[in-house]
Design brief:
The complex is a heterodimer of chains A (707) and B (343). Chain A has 707 residues and is mainly alpha-helical. Among the domains of chain A are: 140 residues, Serine Threonine Protein Phosphatase 5, Tetratricopeptide repeat (Alpha Horseshoe); 83 residues, Serine Threonine Protein Phosphatase 5, Tetratricopeptide repeat, CATH 1.25.40; 106 residues, Tetratricopeptide repeat domain (Serine Threonine Protein Phosphatase 5, Tetratricopeptide repeat). Helix content of chain A is 69%, strand content 1%. A two-stranded antiparallel ribbon of chain A has the order 1-2. In chain A, β1 and β2 form a beta hairpin. The relative contact order of chain A is 0.03. With 343 residues, chain B is mainly alpha-helical. The termini of chain B are far apart. In chain B, α4 packs parallel to α7, α7 crosses α8 and α13 packs antiparallel against α14. The longest helix of chain B is centred in the first third of the chain and has 25 residues. Chain B folds into two domains: 162 residues, no CATH class; 90 residues. In chain B, 56% of the residues lie in helices and 4% in strands. Chain B has a two-stranded antiparallel sheet. The chains are: A mainly alpha (707), B mainly alpha (343). β1 of chain A pairs parallel with β3 of chain B, so a sheet runs across the interface. Chain A: It comes from Brassica campestris. Chain A: Pfam families: TPR_16. Chain A: Keywords: TPR repeat.
Chain lengths: 707, 343
């Protein structure tokens, strides 16, 4: 009891010290204490009359003021009782009658009217509208959201009725505008709370498409709320009505489009300084655009954000994510180089890992990538320790890729074993990561440790339940390298069973090659024909909208198929068929070294000189292409039988090719020929021996095609 | 699906498209279908009483719990499983309310199915249900991809004016594919299509997400965490003394980790977005489960170094953080608390 009293006392003291709540009207003011006491007793009538006397108000005004007092005191139930005592609808009808009749409808909004009458009617209108608005708020706080929404809606309906030509900009009563803005913002939220989503959508659109003279910040809030609603409510909004559409303007057709449009408009407003920056907008846009895989559009939006909003490193890193998701690797790497510079944030793990991954895809960048990966490994500590495995994995991939860049044999084998070591290190952290298992397998295969490779290939297929196409292909290649062709074919057939027709291309190509290896050219031709039909069907029906094939990067191209078929026919000495195939292939690609090579074999020595010059032209365009070098080298070495001066050129080309790809069997073979024609029999023997050894462990397609 | 290239807004259900003459007939037909479904369910779920109407059944948590526990049995996905057969038949009935009843269990079925794939146990029952959903979407999308036109602000729109050329802009729009064309002859035996088929089932689930009960959403968040397979790692750094128990928990959860291609991640993200920001009633439990799932998927995206998933999951996490910040919880529709009240 005592405690209660003392707290009451201190509250009173506090009140008398701080500015007291006062009620003012018509030049008079009064303290609220007396009125509040009456309200607390539940005596609304008495409270009202004391207001009417003290401030010379009419009954409505007094009630409205009382209601607001109750609301502000946090007594929403009391406020509701007071508001229910006012006949608000009648008041609105009176206002409508007294409102000025419609003038020229063409000049919306900005018609100057008689000042006193205008402000008087605005004043009266605000009194009523604010009362209804507070009633809606009170209902909302009591959880009666549907009723609240109806009251709130009636505020907006009334505004439209009373001010049929819009509220005049110049002399709008600020309090009236405030009430209107509040109601515009509250209405959709109330419908949403009450679960009436269709009403919520039309309330949002009404807020944004009608003239409410909202200030920029509240308009921005409504736009953002609507965008969030469209993105996440899971309720499909029907497209906006035709009435709101201006000829030639963009009309969104569905939720995602409308949400992205709104968010982009918001971002533009921020950039132009028209509204206060809201960090959630860019996050919502990030979500929306990455769902549609439009990260390059997102990058553009990020670039337009005013400087100072993000730190530059933050911006660079986000942009790098966007560009790398959009496949623009070099742009992403350039940005990451800046953000990982020693004066910026050199230890940022996500940036380091992304950079190392992007570099691991490109032999010339692999060395740089290994550096990033090593830094990631060193920095993955504490909370981020779980990323250490990822760092090791990237390190392994980068080193493996680096081993492909021309370098000394010693350096190459060092890189390869380091790569394996790193991948093994990674697996200690992530023993359940199938991707890692796969990469480890490929690394072993590249080093011709076929036993280990086949073990990992099987493990990968198990772990992914056979759902990843490259797993099947890898196992078939490993088996082919072990010269177990029939088993490889069984695996390929199993994979074909697991794969939809549309994605079977690479498997069919593999199968055809396996048939050739098993000296079964007729069936190989059959398989090639089937593959051709598939590839051609795909070419015709592949619109931009049919994507998402697992082997996106490894689509079989038609040229390759014609070329393969030509090669097959030439081995069968079906020269007419060879010619047809080569013609078809020629239509698709004008100059190709390996095609010319086949053609050269076909017509033998007649055109070789010409062909050679063409090939050399090709090499100028594509300097590092191993198959190209080998093809030209092969041509020259065969020609060298009669024409000695071409041999040194052939020799340097082939040695070049072997520096890049030391496991290229054909290069060894032709280099052997060059030595033989030149009379260096011992060297020739070594080369032929290398070629034959490699043949025993040569996969039917290069292992590097699947990683 | 919510976005569509062609004309359809929601999956067209033949039974509700009937004109007034056939309404009565349809209604009795509907009732009959629902009664059949209820009766056959009562022979499968024996632990609790089945309500007599579909609308009651949809909201009956006891029945849902009973079905869920049946689904979670180790042999639940097999081809001769009664419950799977019931789910399949019920979905085939083309009755919208019965569809909802089946969709409610998509999170559980998809979650169990994909996580059990490496165990090599027969799952023909689950496969039949998932394929039925896939076939339904294939028909209703009519060989169209789901696309979005990315707006270009240099052209005016209903929400903004622009000084740019107001010519017909349909040609220069940037079309984005949200969900690619469905291959009508897909079967789940083709295991390389598995993720796509489950992804489409999740897309269908998302299209009805506003009508799904909270337990179903909780099931989904659980499935996401399992698929991501990153549970142990988040905690490992925080409580090192529990290292051993965490390690045990991790190896238990290993079974759930699955490859997460974009065709799965994308619908997953949309559902989680709804759980975090789109629910009618504030539901703390669902929100927390969803943000945990998001956290796991974000970590997984980092492990996969998948930039698109990093962006999507990262943005959801940051939005969640912002929403929890008291400074962003201002009610802008509240009136100002003046000390002087005037008329």
């Amino acid at each position: 009891m005592l405690g209660d009293q003392s707290s009451e006392l201190s509250e009173n003291n506090g009140e008398s010290e701080s500015p007291t709540l006062r009620l003012c009207a018509n030049g008079a003011c009064m303290k609220t204490t007396e009125v509040e006491a009456k309200l607390d007793e539940g005596n609304i009538q008495d409270a009202e009359s004391s207001l009417r006397e003290g401030l010379s108000l009419n009954s409505e005004e007094a009630r409205a003021l009382l209601g607001r007092l109750e609301y502000q005191r946090g007594n929403v139930e009391g406020a509701l009782r007071v508001f229910e005592g006012i006949d608000l609808q009648a008041a609105i009808q009176r206002l409508q009658v007294s409102a000025p009749p419609p003038e020229k409808p063409s000049t919306k909004k900005k018609v100057p009217r008689e000042q006193p009458q205008q402000s008087a009617s605005q004043h009266a209108a605000n009194l009523v509208l604010e009362a209804i608005y507070l009633k809606a708020k009170s209902l909302q706080k009591l959880g009666r959201t549907t009723e609240a929404a109806q009251e709130c809606k009636s505020v907006l309906d009334s505004v439209e009725k009373i001010f049929q030509q819009g509220i005049p900009d110049a002399q709008v009563d600020t309090r009236l505008q405030e009430t209107v803005s509040h109601a515009v913002e509250l209405l959709p939220a109330l419908w949403k709370e009450s679960g009436d989503y269709q009403e919520a959508i039309s309330a949002y659109r009404r807020a944004l498409l009608s003239q409410w003279s909202l200030d920029n910040d509240s308009c921005a809030r409504v736009q953002k709320d609507f965008a969030v609603f469209l993105l996440h409510s899971g309720v499909e909004a029907s497209p906006p009505s035709l009435g709101s559409q201006v000829e030639g303007s963009y009309v969104p057709r569905n939720n995602l489009e409308e949400a992205i449009l709104l968010l982009m408009i918001l971002l533009k407003k921020f950039n132009q300084g028209k509204a206060k920056w809201d960090p959630s907008v860019i996050e919502h846009l990030t979500f929306g655009l990455s769902l549609c895989s439009q990260t390059s559009v997102l990058a553009k939006q990020l670039e337009e954000v005013m400087p100072g909003v993000f730190s530059r490193v933050e911006r660079w890193n986000s942009l790098a994510l966007c560009y790398s998701a959009a496949g623009q690797t070099s742009a992403a790497v350039n940005l990451l180089r800046k953000s990982l510079h020693k004066h910026e944030q050199p230890d940022d793990l996500v940036a380091l890992l992304l950079a190392s991954k992007l570099c691991s895809e490109e032999p010339s960048l692999a060395g740089e990538g290994a550096g990033y990966a090593q830094r990631a490994v060193n920095n993955a500590q504490g909370m981020d320790e779980h990323l250490k495995g990822v760092g090791f994995r990237m390190l392994g991939l980068c080193l493996g890729k680096q081993a492909k860049v021309p370098t000394s044999d010693f350096e190459r084998s060092r890189l390869q074993s380091e790569s394996l070591k790193a991948l093994d290190g990674a697996i200690a952290f992530e023993h359940n990561n199938p991707d890692l298992i796969f990469e480890l397998g490929v690394q072993y295969a590249e080093q011709r440790n076929l036993k280990a490779a086949s073990r990992y290939a099987k493990e990968f297929i198990d772990a992914t339940g056979g759902s990843v196409l490259k797993g099947w292909r890898f196992l078939a290649l490993v088996l082919s390298a072990q010269q177990r062709f029939s088993e490889a074919e069984v695996v390929t057939d199993a994979a074909l069973d697991e794969t939809a027709k549309w994605d079977q291309g690479p498997l069919l190509r593999l199968k055809a090659k396996l048939k050739i290896s098993q000296s079964n050219p007729t069936e190989a031709v059959e398989t090639y024909r089937y593959l051709l039909a598939l590839v051609q069907a795909q070419r015709k029906s592949f619109g931009p909208l049919r994507t998402l094939s697992q082997m996106e990067e490894d689509k079989v191209n038609e040229f390759e198929v014609w070329h393969g078929l030509a090669y097959l026919y030439s081995s069968l000495s079906h020269w007419n068929d060879v010619e047809v195939c080569l013609k078809k292939a020629g239509e698709l690609k004008q100059y190709s070294a390996s095609m010319l090579h086949t053609e050269g074999k076909n017509q033998n020595t007649l055109l070789t000189t010409l062909l050679t010059s063409l090939c050399i032209n090709m090499l100028i365009f594509d300097e590092s292409s191993v198959p190209c070098k080998v093809a030209v080298g092969a041509l020259l070495s065969e020609r060298g039988k009669e024409h000695q001066p071409t041999l040194p050129v052939a020799r340097s080309l082939l040695s070049d090719a072997l520096r890049i790809d030391p496991t290229n069997r054909k290069a060894w073979y032709y280099l052997g020929l060059v030595h033989k024609y030149d009379g260096r029999i011992a060297d020739a023997t070594d080369c032929f021996q290398a070629a034959s050894m490699l043949e025993e462990s040569d996969p039917i397609e290069s292992f590097s095609t699947i990683l | 699906m919510s976005e569509s290239a062609s004309s359809h807004d929601s999956p067209p259900a033949p039974t509700i498209a009937g004109d007034s003459q056939t309404t009565a007939a349809n209604e009795s037909d509907t009732n009959a279908k629902c009664q059949t479904a209820i009766q056959s369910l009562s022979s499968i779920v024996t632990t609790t009483t089945i309500p007599s109407t579909i609308s009651l059944l949809l909201d009956d948590s006891a029945v849902s719990a009973a079905i869920s526990s049946l689904l979670q049995r180790p042999d639940s996905g097999s081809g001769d499983n009664n419950l799977c057969r019931w789910l399949y038949d019920t979905f085939q009935s083309t009755e919208p309310s019965l569809h909802l009843l089946v969709l409610r269990f998509v999170p559980l079925i998809a979650g169990l199915y994909l996580s059990r794939v490496p165990l090599r146990q027969p799952q023909a029952g689950f496969e039949a249900v998932l394929l039925a959903l896939y076939a339904h979407e294939t028909t209703s999308r009519a060989d169209q991809a789901v696309t979005v036109n990315i707006p270009d602000l240099s052209h005016p729109s209903i929400y903004h004016e622009s000084k740019g050329p107001a010519k017909n802009n349909s040609t220069c729009l940037n079309i984005a594919v949200v969900s690619s064309t469905l291959d009508p002859h897909g079967t789940i035996r083709e295991s390389t299509r598995r993720a796509r088929i489950v992804g489409v089932a999740l897309e269908l689930y998302y299209s009805e997400i506003a009508r799904m009960p909270r337990e179903s959403k909780l099931d989904f968040c659980g499935a996401c965490e399992k698929w991501a397979g990153q549970n142990g790692e988040t905690r490992a750094g925080v409580v090192p003394e529990e290292e051993e128990s965490v390690a045990v928990a991790r190896s238990e959860k290993d079974g759930g980790r699955i490859p997460l291609p974009w065709e799965l991640v994308q619908p997953m993200m949309r559902i989680l977005g709804h759980c975090l920001m789109g629910m009618k009633v504030e539901d703390r439990e669902v929100k927390e489960a969803a943000s945990k799932a998001c956290q796991s998927l974000y970590l997984r995206a980092l492990h996969d170094i998948n930039p698109k998933a990093i962006l999507a999951a990262g943005s959801l996490l940051r939005l969640r953080e912002m929403a929890l910040d008291p400074k962003n919880q201002i009610d802008h529709t509240e009136i100002s608390n003046d000390n002087v009240l005037s008329v």
